[in-house]
């Protein structure tokens, strides 16, 4: 066998092995990502948020359901779900079963495109070039899912302002419908969450810059999003090749600053489209975010709201 033939055989073998790993191993390598974000007022106790996104559930998927349900053992103070829960019309019971123990905790949610419409086969090269042409799959039973989540006590933050008292920490939250489908109507929540909150929290499925800019301009401390799958296929040393939205590739997953005063956290999510069931260098994840006050004397240090100070006195 000459050197060219050996190269072809080696490259083919490597490619097949990589695809087998991405499809058979990594997409089920459930991972908990942890981060600490300095967004609370001075004197606040830590607040732990479990951020879940992009379950893309289909009937079955027992290992995913078990792993998500076991996250309840973390005892988060608040659970935030940023959408794309469904990939099949009969998957609502599976999503509810996975979230079951977590539904006993305070929770907030917004939906994504794959709560409204099922996935469809796509040319993978489409993701490498931005296009506005979208083909929707079958309608999904998002109303049934919403009813199940609300019945268990979670708050739908879609185009709504929600105020929660989470173990003494006042959370003012608001969210938008999915910008990926151009359903966001930020004007319905515009104007900021007020000054009496300890945490101003924004929710969106797709982290489109226009939405992030609006949350930042209104003084939100933290915005949570999903949608990107962290790039889904990442190149070691390079990172994500695409985000499937207007967000830059360096922010495809994890925490970053957005402007001078706002933090952004993008979840790489827990699922994939059933038509592209692969992940590489980007395992499926949920995130446990520990929110704390900034270090004393640091720039951007938050003070305790006046009403909270009065309560302490």
Automatic annotation (TrEMBL):
Q: Name one GO biological process term.
A: lipid A biosynthetic process
Region spans: Disordered: 293-313
Q: Which residues form the Calcineurin-like phosphoesterase domain?
A: 47-230
Pfam families found in the cross-reference section: Metallophos
Q: Name one GO molecular function term.
A: UDP-2,3-diacylglucosamine hydrolase activity
What GO cellular-component annotations does this UniProt entry give?
A: membrane
InterPro entries for the chain? Calcineurin-like_PHP, Metallo-depent_PP-like, Metallophosphoesterase_sf
Highest taxon of source = Bacteria
| The protein's name in its UniProt record | Metallophosphoesterase
**Taxonomy-wise, where does this protein's organism fall, top ranks first?**
Bacteria, Bacillati, Actinomycetota, Actinomycetes, Pseudonocardiales
